[in-house]
Structure formats: C-alpha cells, structure tokens
Amino acid sequence: MGRARTIARRTFLIGSAALLGGVAFGVYKVKTPYPNPLEDGLADGSATFNPWVLIDSEKVTLITPHADKGQGVASAQAALIAEELDIEFGQFEISFGAPAKAYYNTGMADEGVPFMASDESRMAETVRGLAGSAMKLVAMQMTGGSTTMPDSFDKLREAGAVARETLKAAAAQQSGVPVGQLKTARGAVILPDGSEIAYTALAATAAGIAPVTGVALRDPSAWRLIGKPMQRLDMVAKSTGTLGYGLDIRHEGMLFATIRRNPQKGGAMLSYNAAAAEGMAGVKKIVPLADGVAVVADNTWRAFQAADAITFDWGPAPYPPEQAAHWEAIAASFTEDRLDKTWRDDGDTGAALAAGTPFSAEYRAPYVAHQPLEPLNATILVTDERVDIWCGHQTISMIEGAVAAITGHDTSQVHFHNHFIGGSFGHWLELGFVEQAAEVANQMRGVPIKLTYSREEDFAQDFPRQPGIARGQGIVKDGHVEAVDLQIAMPSVLGSQMGRLGISIPGPDSQISAGAWNNPYALPNYRMRAYRVPELAPVSSWRSVGASANGFFFDSFLDELIHEAGADPMAERIRLMQHEVSRKVLEAVAEMSSWGGALAPGKGRGVAFVESFGVPVAEVVEVTDTEEGIRIDKVWVAADVGTVVDPVNFENLVQGGVIFGLGHAMNCEITYAGGAAEQVNFYDAEGMRFHQCPEIVVRGLENGHKVRGIGEPPVPPAAPALANAIFAATGQRLREMPFNKFVDFA
Amino acid sequence: MRLTVNGTSHEVDVEADMPLLWVLRDELGLTGTKYGCGVASCGACTVHIDGVAVLSCQTAVGDVGAGAVTTIEGLGTPDALHAVQAAWIAHQVAQCGYCQSGQIMQAASLLAENPSPSDAEIDEAMDGNLCRCGTYPRIRAAVQTAARSLQGA
Ligand code: FES
Ligand code: FES
C-alpha cells in the first residue's frame, strides 16, 4: 500500500551473508555515540548523564526503552541501571522514553550471523563484532528476538555507574569532601560522617559537570539486585487493574473506531455498502480505506455493531484460497532451485545414507496465530502542528516515520508514546494497525481517535507463524545414531515480515533453519538443507520464530533414530552433545526428573533439546494415557542464559514458554478456506487452558559466557518433548502439529 | 438507567442491550475490566454482580437492574489490597497482566463460595479464564495462598 511507495527501500543487514561482503563503514561513525535524547528541552537544574538516567530536584527517572509485552523488561532494565546507581525499587520512576537512535538494539546482530551460538571462535566473534557495528549504523530501536538482556546487560549497568560516579563528583563539589571518601546507597551519596545527600538534591550541581566515564563495572559478587528474587515494578498495577494499556487510553473528546478489512489478506475491496451502519446509534463517520472501512463512533461497542452492519464485496487474496494448496506448494519445494542454503554438512551424509538402509520420516508444522489477549489498538491525535501516537509497539524506531508518511507532517512533529502491551508473541511488531489509525485520525484532525480491532478482526488480519514440512533420512549403527539428513521447506518469514516494513533481506533466511542446524551435537554425519517456499499467505515472527517448528522437526527425528538404534533417549543425546554448556543442560534435566527410574503403567516420558537465541534448553515431559485422553502430568526444564537476572521472573517466563509451546502443539492451527482464516476467535485457537496445565519445574543454569534472553527459548523443545513422551506412553508417533488431530487430550 | 458500580450509583444513557463491559470501560471509564474476545471465550471481562463472577461481555446492561457490580477497581486498591490481589503480588503472577483482572475476579468469587478449594476445584473454576502468557502454575499457587490468608491461617 501507500507506505511502501513513500519509504525508500533499504537493505537491512541481518540474516545475511551480505553483511561481510557489502558493508563499508567508517570507524569514526561507529565510535561516535548518538546524541542523548534527554537533553532535548532539559529543564534548568535537571541532570542527565546518558540516555537512560534523568534526575531533577523532585525525582529520579530511569528510561527503559525496550517494549514490555509481559516479559518484565521494564523492571529488568531498571534493575540493571539501579544495580550500579545504588538506588532501590520505589525510589525512582520508569519511562519508556521517546524513540531515539541512542536506544538502538545492539543485540540483534548475533541471530543474523551464520555461526552457531556455541561457536565462540575468533572468526565467529569478529563477524559478530562487524555485525554489531552495522547494527549501530542502522540504529534500529526494536524489541524482539529475546535481545533485551543481551542488548542491555552491560550498557545499562554502565549507564548506572556513570550516573553514580558523576553524582559523587557533584557531592564532592557541594560538600568539599574528596570523592574517594564518598559512598552511595539507597538513592543518596553518603558522606564520611554518615550524613546523606539525596541524588535529587545533587541534580543542579551534577547538571554542570561532564559525566564521569570509564567507570569499571562491579564484580558479580557485589551485586545487590541481579540474581536475587525481585518484585516486578508493574506487578501491583497489573494486580489491581490500574496499569494503563493502549486499550485503556482516554482523552478529552476522544472517539472510538474499529475497522473491517479484506479477510483475504492483501486482496482488494471491490465495493461496500454502509447505508445501514450510517444511521446507527452513536456512529460519527464512516471512513473508507484502501482495503477496508473504518467506523468512528462514540463508544467501542457501537463502532463494532456498525461495522457488523456493513456489507462488502472482497477481491481474492494473492495466495491460494484453500489450505491444501499451501501444503502442496511446500511439498513441491524440495528442489535444487529452491535450496536456500545448506546450513550444515558434517561428515559425508550422502555416503552414509548410500551405505545403509535409511530410516525416513516426514513432519509438518501449521500456520499458528499470535493472538495476545490485548487486541490490536492505537490512539492517535492529528493536528496541523503535531501528531501524537499512544499504543504499545515493538518496532519503535519506524512508527513516527510511517505515520508522518500518512499525515504529511515532518517526522520531528510526530511523537510516539509507548505503553505496556497485553502480550505479543510477535504480534506487536507490525505497523499496519498504527497506519490505519493514522489514516482515520488524519481525516478527523483535532479529534483523538482510538482504533480497536475486534477479536474476530484480529484473527482475520493476523499474519501467522509460517508453516513448514521437514523430511528426514537417517542411519543407525551399532546402537547409535550414525547419520542425519534433514531437509526443511518453509516460506521466508523474514522476507514476508521485513518486506512489509519496506526492508529487503538479501541472502538465505536463517529462520528456515534456526532450531535445526545449530544444535551442537557431534553427529558423525549431519546435513541440514533449507528450502525457500515461494510466498504464500503473509507470515510474521511467532514466539521463537523458525525454531518453533524446526526444533520440533529436528528433535522428533533424532528421537525416532535413537529409538531405531535401541539407545536411551537421554543417554544418547548426552553422548552426542559436544558443547559442554549444552550437555550440562541435558544432565541437569536428567537429574531433576530422575530420568531412567521406573514409571507407573500408562505413563511415558520424552526429552527434547533445542538451542535457540543462543540459549540451550532441555525439557522432559511426562504424560499418562488415561481414559479421557493424554494428560500431561509434569514438565522439567533446564536452560542456560549465562546470568539469570531475576530468578522469579525467569521461572515465570520459562513456565509460560513451555505452556505456549505445549498448548499450540496440542491444540492450535490456522487453516485457510476461501482465502480467509477459518479460525475466528479463541474458541477455535486458544493455546492451553487451565485444566491442561501440568506442574513445571524450572532450573536456570549459568555456565554460558554471554547473557541471553529467555522469552523465546523455552518454546521450541516443548512440542518434541511432548510428542516423544506420547510415543513412549502409547507407541504412537506424532509427526504433525497440532497433535489433537491424532490423539485426545484430557 | 441507574447502575451501581463499586458502591457508586451512576446514571447511564445507553441501549439496554449494550454489554456491561463497554458501559464500564467506555461510558464510566473503569478500564481495569478488559475486552479479550467478546464471546465468553476468555474471561478477561469478569466482574462480580452481587459477589458472583459474571462475564461482563455477555451481560446486557439492561439486565443488571439493582444488582451491585464490583470491578477489579472496587475489589481492592494498591493501598488497600484484597487478599487475592496480595497473593497475586506475593507470587508475582502476572506477565503481560492483561488477563489478570479477570483471573483475580474469578478467584475472589471462587473463594467466597468455596473457602478451601482443591487443585481440581481451582482448575474447574478457573478454566474459562484464558491466559495467553501461561501464568497458570502461579495462579494455582496464588489461589491457595489467598485461601489460607482469607481463612486467617
Ligand atoms: S471478553 Fe468476555 S469472555 Fe472474553
Ligand atoms: S498474563 Fe498475559 S494473558 Fe495472562
């Protein structure tokens, strides 16, 4: 649509070998920091030391620029700053801040380089460094890919340390006591006589001092907050209904809008008839858009009612209308000309297969919807002088430009105010709903417009997880797995998603192989080939992205081969694991679950291991085959993130990730009929309900050398661990998700 | 028509068939009660009428009559938490938190009816409340803690 034409296409340097070949950038540009946005209009007597800390005579404000969609990073970012700043929870406020280049995500580079996360060779680290420099020039402020902790861990502690040392210098100036005799604690500088000067009382003096830089970070043994159980800053508000999500925004004179667009996504609107809607109670305006119609009313329900009364004649989608044709297109893509990349080729897999009688199997992963519980919404006020946007969003640095392209303002006149988000799983990365709200608000200048998707519209317009098919061939010998040849075909999620942002990604798509090629097993022969299926229905990153399907493919096939070999599923994985940090994860989960002990009749256990986003995760699932169907009794999880920042939140996120992985593997798919998704509300695709939820025991390991995020990595092993457990209990192999097509769940 | 919410009587001028959910959110500005599905599939909109949990998206405002509506804002406040809210905070239940108003209202209603529910009874009472983030294990534990604290244990 319009924006793709108005924003120049750029080449975005992730997921790509072009990273090495095509980039030239000056050392100067890479070393020069971006300006501190807090200095814009800084009030007299206020001090800012860097883009994350702002102090005035009243309060300390910490900027937590990563989007928080439930993963707790607002709190965690603040904790990293507070660790070095010596300030306690309750003594400061937090703000998401305004979009700025200074907040670019340094953590996006690792996922895009063609090295296994377990590869810490000089070559791999050098390329990661180059990729990091390129990321700085792109200056993308974006939350996703479990990157908040890798991006923030050093940067925000440094921000806190610089602020602390500068405040001490200010205190020295104010008190005449040498800096070396000053200490800090609880938001104050402490003088040798025990008296305290609050940071707020030092703001005016500190404002006149150049920030003290080159401060050494504290040794982990001195940490007060990191690694200790925390009380998240958003928890009281979220338990009392007082947290303001985007959907809760209210402004004087605000009107409420909703939208209907072609459910055959990307198809045209041929005609519509809104005659019945126009006269309905509370309806203020019907706003035709390029591929749909918005209704503006005086409350959300009246807007929903009126939208239901509009009739449409829709044009067809650019993809096949029926689901079967999608599967056919994927199945037809295992060809030489569709080969995106051979990601791994250890040993001589071809020769090993030719020398024996290969065992083979085929697996499928369907389209799956995101459906966080907060429906898409955005509130926008357009006036001739400025534009304000209130909503949650992850693609922070692109919103103001996208809206400016619609309203005709200069980007500097457009102001995005980020909000806590009611879940995402990748859903709140897309710009479309904000652009639609901007189109409506631009036609009603001076009136704040809140656009809310109905749940049905949210299902209809979602860009689900990409579907895929995997074909495995393998050889077992002398009780062990000898060769694995895995081929995966799926549409490119990066191509689809980044294409909508006007960004083209050269080279292979790492998400067709993520979770399958990178598991650090030392198989004698292992080949993994990725095939790019021509674009089908539009797709988008879904919590853990490629690994959500590929982890299921790889680990399920490995499990089948281990059974063919007659080996123990746990012992054989541990034997094959060459990467020590990953092996310890497997050993931990074996110990936690007392793997190998006798089980009651009808019970079965499965183990799975998948590395994603640099985090090795192993899960053991125990099920019972009951009269009502399969019941998941218990899950044990071990994951290594290098450093566990908050063990309480870590446990919550791991449990949630396991539930997400299990629930969708059991119960969910999106299928197309007549070009539209057949699933229309939660009763068609709800993930896991309360009664299906097992007990989940979690252990965080800290043997890894880098700090990693935990939002996504617990998801990929859940599906194969469950499938492997069901096989152990019943002898039935499940090679296609969702499993409820083949077995009942209690 | 008149509507009593959290002890305050309001005059609202809306169609009788408008769901209570939207009257609370858009007409009265009580946004703690959430819209998730509109079709009785998620429980995010759960409130109490005369102490009993109901889905406000399925309750026509004209049917509330003299019933006393309690929303999450009326259950307790950050300064005066209800025992269920205190347990939710102690167990650090929320992730995105969007479902939690409904979860808490459902749990409070359960405990008013059944002061010491078993795990199976908790599962059954809470089954209509979807949590897309997967906080169920913590909800289970928090309901047990709230039950104990309400019984003065
Ligand atoms: S909004 Fe009422 S049950 Fe979902
Ligand atoms: S905490 Fe996010 S839906 Fe429950």
From TrEMBL, chain A:
SMART domains noted in UniProt: Ald_Xan_dh_C (SM01008)
Show where the Aldehyde oxidase/xanthine dehydrogenase a/b hammerhead domain sits. Answer: 240-318
Which Pfam families does its entry note? MoCoBD_1, MoCoBD_2
Which InterPro entries does the entry mention?
A: Ald_Oxase/Xan_DH_a/b, AldOxase/xan_DH_MoCoBD1, AldOxase/xan_DH_MoCoBD2, AldOxase/xan_DH_Mopterin-bd_sf, N-heterocyclic_Hydroxylase, OxRdtase_Mopterin-bd_su_IorB
Out of the domains of life, which is the source? Bacteria
Chain coiled-coil ranges: none
Q: What is this protein called?
A: Aldehyde dehydrogenase
From TrEMBL, chain B:
Residues in domain 2Fe-2S ferredoxin-type? Answer: 1-75
InterPro entries the UniProt entry points to: 2Fe-2S-bd, 2Fe-2S-bd_dom_sf, 2Fe-2S_ferredoxin-like_sf, 2Fe-2S_ferredoxin-type, 2Fe2S_fd_BS, Beta-grasp_dom_sf, Diverse_Oxidoreductases
Which domain of life does the protein's organism represent? Bacteria
Is the keyword GTP-binding in the record?
Answer: no
Keywords (alphabetical) are:
2Fe-2S, Iron, Iron-sulfur, Metal-binding, Oxidoreductase
**TM regions (residue ranges):** none
Task: Supply the PANTHER family for this chain.
Answer: BLR6218 PROTEIN (PTHR44379:SF2), OXIDOREDUCTASE WITH IRON-SULFUR SUBUNIT (PTHR44379)
Write the protein's name. Answer: Isoquinoline 1-oxidoreductase subunit alpha
Q: Give the source species.
A: Sinisalibacter aestuarii
